[in-house]
Amino acid sequence: MAQSSLYQTLPTYLNAVLIAEQVKATLHEDMGKGDLTAALIPAGTRASATIISRQQAIICGCAWVQQCFAQLDQTVTINWQVKDGDLVEPNQTLVVIEGDARAMLSAERPALNFLQTLSAVATHTRLYVDAIAGLPTQILDTRKTLPGLRLAQKYAVLTGGGANQRLALYDGILIKENHIAAAGSIASVLKAAFELRQTENIQIEVESLAELQQALDAGAKSILLDNFTLQDLRQAVTVNQKRALLEASGNVDLTTVRSIAETGVDRISIGALTKHIQAIDLSMRIQMQL
Fold first, then answer.
1. How many CA atoms lie within 13 A of 8 on its CB side?
2. How far apart are CA 89 and CA 101, in angstroms?
3. For residue 101, which of 50, 89, 143, 288 sits 20 to 30 Å off, Cα-Cα?
4. First to last CA, the chain
5. Helices then strands (H, E): number in the chain?
6. Residues with active-site annotation
7. Sign of dihedral through CA atoms 226, 230, 233, 235?
8. Is the pTM of this model over 0.90?
9. What angle do CA 120, 110, 103 make, to 5 degrees?
């Protein structure tokens, strides 16, 4: 797989430059002034390596892996056997790498960290997407991401078949309980939001059916239903009559997500997609070349 093709399917908020900067910071964090252990290998030694999967997973993060090796070795060749979004099985070869042995050893852990973490998010997301298969409800992420990995994790959610909530505080208005309290009421805070931003990207969180009605009366077009029971979610859908987009959030897991989707809500946002994850088990094997 050519390096340029790794970036062709990225969302607009990600590009090769951003990924390169993220990898540069990660390599500096790990290596500092240099890799003392890799220096034990004679300079100029060439090696080949493969990264293999140890479990079934949805792969995500190829572009980050590519950068980890390329930034340390301009002569490296990387041949991908998979692409982001592919389902892989245990003991499947993901990529074959050839290049400078020292650089390869230094890049190993940062590369695996990116690939294991982002693949974990994509794999976890796919479980939720599969759990509501056949229903029109979308699975969304939240801002509960690892520091410094926000955009990468958001991309991993897309790779797993989910969708992105707002990227960050600058990317739309989400009015929560404390905003309402500071503004005085649902009606007043929505009025201020509409005056500030004349777009559809304004959402308000409500905690009861009474607050839902207030939000609808105030003209809300996107409403987050926080910790509603299944009965209240069904009632909210009935009350709403498709006037606003309804998003359920809170206490969502793989045992409850389908029941929540069956209430008729449009979206379900799940913080666990990006924060309750376990790194995918991958392994890199290096062989010195004669």
1. 7
2. 28
3. 89
4. 26
5. 10, 12
6. 109, 144, 176, 205, 226
7. negative
8. yes
9. 145
Strand boundaries in the chain, DSSP class E: 46-53, 57-58, 77-80, 87-88, 93-100, 138-140, 173-175, 202-206, 222-226, 245-249, 267-269, 282-288
Rounded to 5 degrees, what are φ and ψ at 113? -60, -45
171 and 154 in contact (C-beta within 8 Å)?
no
At 62-117, the pLDDT tens digits run: 999 999 999 999 999 999 999 999 999 999 999 999 999 999 999 999 999 999 99
Q: Which two tokens stand for residue 139?
A: 């699975």
Distance CA 111, CA 120 (A): 14
Q: Could you count the other beta carbons within 10 Å of the beta carbon of residue 271?
A: 16
CA distance 69 to 108: 8
C-beta neighbour count of 177 within 10 angstroms: 12
Q: What is the mean pLDDT of residues 204-228?
A: 97
Q: Give, in degrees to the nearest 5, the angle at Cα 181 between 180 and 185.
A: 55
